[in-house]
Every structure is written in structure tokens, then in C-alpha cells.
Design goal:
This protein is an alpha+beta fold. Helix content is 62%, strand content 15%. The chain has three helices and four strands. The protein has a four-stranded antiparallel sheet, with no helix packed on it. The longest helix has 92 residues, at 12-103. The chain is rod-shaped and about 170 Å long. The termini are far apart. Mean pLDDT is 82; it is low at 144-156.
């Protein structure tokens, strides 16, 4: 445009107007370039925030997963302990009680129920006491209290009647 004004083919105010318009266009272009760079910067910032959010969420999920696994392991351990206790209560404990009862030395305690003219009377006896016809031999265990507490049900004495044909 300056060459046209120098040759006299265009007017100077027109040149100034065109130069000003060119400067405005150039300024707007720089503003647009700046806006584009800011938008790209904001996009990068947003992408970084998304990545940070995903990482935070992943950490939180992994932490929750680890806590859930620890709780599950603890529950499995408690369950196994309960199974072991039930097994011991149902299987091992009765065997131990039966073994303890078998291992205890049970000494029989003898007594005789003998008929006399006053009625039946109980006489302490040993395994060498002489029996008479009609005697009833009662055999008790000196461990009856221990067995009664270890095993349910009553402990009864055994009775044996000596026939009248034996003896005298």
C-alpha cells in the first residue's frame, strides 16, 4: 500500500486505515493464539486432574480390597477355630473322658443284705466274706461320685442273690 501512496495511486488516510485494520487482525490473531494456548493449558490441567482422580480412586479401591481380604482371612480363621472347637467338643473330649474313666482304678465296695429275725440288714463285706443262703451281695464303686459327675445318668449298684441251696 505504501508504494501505491508513493506513486499517488492511493490516498494516505486509506493506507492508515488498512494498516490499522491489519494491526487489529494481527492483534486478534495473537489473542486467539493466546486463548488457544490457555485452553490447551486448561485441558492439560483437566487431564492431570482426571489422572490424579483415577490414581486416588485406584488407591482407595486397593486399600478397601486389602481391608476386605484381611477381614475375610480373620473370619476364615475364626471359622476354622470354631470348627476345631466343635470337633474337639464332639469327638476328642468324649474320648478323653472315656479314657480317663477307663484309666481310673475302680475298687468295688461290697456289702451284704442278710435276712435276720429283725428284718433285712446291711453288712459291710470284703471279697473274702463268707456268704450264707439268701444273702444279697451289693457291689458299689468307690468312684461312683467321679463317674456320676463325668457321665450323665445314675450309677447303680449291682446285686447278686446267693441261692438258698448253696452254703449250709
Amino acid at each position: 500500500m505504501a508504494t501505491l501512496v508513493a506513486k499517488g495511486l492511493a490516498v494516505a488516510p486509506r493506507q492508515y486505515l488498512l494498516e490499522r485494520t491489519a494491526a487489529e487482525i494481527e492483534s486478534k490473531q495473537l489473542d486467539l493464539d493466546t486463548a488457544i494456548l490457555r485452553a490447551k493449558q486448561e485441558m492439560t490441567k483437566a487431564e492431570r486432574s482426571i489422572i490424579d482422580f483415577r490414581n486416588d480412586r485406584r488407591r482407595e479401591i486397593l486399600s478397601d480390597l486389602q481391608l476386605a481380604r484381611a477381614r475375610r482371612a480373620e473370619a476364615e480363621q475364626r471359622s476354622e477355630t470354631a470348627r476345631t472347637l466343635v470337633y474337639e467338643a464332639e469327638t476328642i473330649a468324649p474320648r478323653l473322658i472315656a479314657d480317663r474313666i477307663r484309666s481310673q482304678r475302680v475298687v468295688p465296695v461290697y456289702s451284704l443284705v442278710r435276712q435276720s429275725h429283725d428284718g433285712p440288714r446291711t453288712i459291710p463285706a470284703t471279697d473274702s466274706t463268707l456268704l450264707e443262703p439268701g444273702d444279697v451281695v451289693k457291689v458299689d464303686s468307690n468312684e461312683a461320685d467321679t463317674q456320676a459327675s463325668a457321665m450323665p445318668g445314675p450309677v447303680t449298684a449291682r446285686e447278686t442273690v446267693v441261692p438258698r441251696t448253696l452254703g449250709r
